[in-house]
Amino acid sequence: MTSAETPATTPAENEVAELCTELISVDSSNYGDGSGPGERAAAEVVMARLAEVGIEATYIESAPGRGNVITRVEGTDPSLPALLVHGHLDVVPANAADWSVDPFAGEIRDGYIWGRGAVDMKDMDAMMLAVLRQLTRDGRRPRRDLVFAWVADEEAGGVYGAKHLTKHHPELFEGVTESISEVGGYSLEVDPSLRLYLIETAQKGLAWMRLLSDGTAGHGSMLNSDNAVTEIARAVARIGAHEWPITLTPTVRTFLTEVAAAFGIPFDENDPAPVLDKIGPLVRFVGATLSHTTNPTQLDAGYKSNVIPGRASAVVDGRFLPGHEDEFFKTVDELIGPNVRREFVHHDIALETSFDGALVESMIAALKAEDPTARAVPYCMSGGTDNKTFFADLGVRGFGFVPLRLPGDMDFASMFHGVDERVPVEALQFGVRVLDRLLLNY
Ligand SMILES: [Zn+2]
């Protein structure tokens, strides 16, 4: 690509694409069962690039090959709380046969960096590196302490990454009260004079529930009014068919109000569909944040055609809204009925923080300085990140903020864990400029 297509001025902007391709070309696929290559090689890239400019970092291996890198930049004002900037080094696996390019080559084509992790989230890993390297080379110091963490295992629950660090090395995060990381900060173009930047301020909670029913076992040819399979099937049908009412949390209400205003259409709380239509494919991120959801995902019972089993079970993937957990479980219990019990396969909190304060103002200011058409809006994620799962336990207020100015026609949501995952080089350069402003001035 020519320099005319990607005007780059600072060293950080010049090198961010190269750092990103270097990280992508290290396969750090996380299969979730420990069989993958681990994050050590990717962590070594980070360590080497930090060492190159004289930054000392701590390397922590939570298990063989599961590498984490952390470093702290001392601020000029020790009275200010520290900010954590974190990214995960692992990626979900990629089936090369499905791709137009080698997913682990880090190829740059048509102004895009292609490869697994290009948006989730070696883009941010590289932006963090580029900004930190430049701050250091220039001898500029931020106002507050900045803790940079490149962690393992986010894609499989964070046990070898954020969980390990927060549990065994909490001192590394001393003084940290806020954090930024995935999944937010990207743009949604309304028209050439207005781009919305979606900053994640809330995440739904997670309740993977096993439903169990116990009945009377017996021969399939006989009368049986206490059949565990029948009972579990009824419960699964009720919970799967349940239409959860629209419940707008403060974040989602603000988001919909702002989007409606941006597109110049009315917002009817009882019928948000016209507003959601306006956000195109991003509805994948937002669509499931207007209500609880409960999707049955597994069924298990019996072992022979003519034997009624004494027990049947099912698994339901439940996601509840922040602030509405009790009401969610109350309804779930009504739906499954008195003859079915439930236990957790996995249970995680919901999070919501307000869209205000100095960090939010700094993020908005940094965006506007680099894109005068920028308007920041908070949004809620239907999934979760390390921000929720672990750093919230340390009392850290987390935001999804990976600033990317995207082309108006880009289907960004499909890039996450998607085939042909890619990110515009210019978006990374934009992100570097925004992060540089934010991290230096906040
Ligand atoms: Zn991610």
From TrEMBL:
GO molecular function, one term: hydrolase activity
Keyword tRNA-binding in annotation: no
Coiled-coil stretches: none
InterPro entries attached to this UniProt entry: ArgE/DapE_CS, Bact_exopeptidase_dim_dom, Peptidase_M20, Peptidase_M20_dimer, Peptidase_M20A
Domain Peptidase M20 dimerisation residue range list: 201-328
The keyword Glycoprotein belongs to this UniProt entry's keyword annotation: no
Stored SUPFAM superfamilies: Bacterial exopeptidase dimerisation domain, Zn-dependent exopeptidases
Pfam families the UniProt entry points to: M20_dimer, Peptidase_M20
Cofactor(s) needed for function: Zn(2+)
UniProt keyword list: Hydrolase, Metal-binding, Zinc
Gene3D superfamilies on file: 1.10.150.900, 3.30.70.360, Zn peptidases (3.40.630.10)
PROSITE patterns the UniProt entry points to: ARGE_DAPE_CPG2_1
Record family assignment: Belongs to the peptidase M20A family.
Protein name: M20/M25/M40 family metallo-hydrolase
